[in-house]
Amino acid sequence: MKDANALQRYHGERMIELTNSHGRQAVVWQEMFDNDALQPSPDTVVHVWKGGWKEELQRITAKGFRALVST
To answer: Going by fewer Cβ within 10 Å, which terminus of the chain is more open, N or C?
Structure first.
């Protein structure tokens, strides 16, 4: 892998693929979305937990992801 983002993308894709293959939904932290490490998938839920959650929620849902807010 050439950098940490590539590693995060690989891990995220594999985790989501594995989770979905068992009929489950993946929940990922917002950093995966922020670092462009997340491929669009209607089954993925992005966990928003940091400050500035309103703006983050708007960006996430505009891309078609569902979100869980626990800030």
So the answer is: N
Paired tokens of 17: 């693929």
The whole model's pTM is what? 0.82
Domain segments of the chain: what residues? Answer: 4-69
For residues 65 and 60, what is the distance between their CA atoms, to the nearest angstrom? 6
CA dist., res. 71 & res. 68, Å (int): 9
φ, ψ of residue 28 to 5 degrees: the values are -125, 155
Chain mean position to CA 51: 17
Environment class of 15 (CB within 10 Å of its CB; exposed 0-12, middle 13-18, buried 19+)? middle
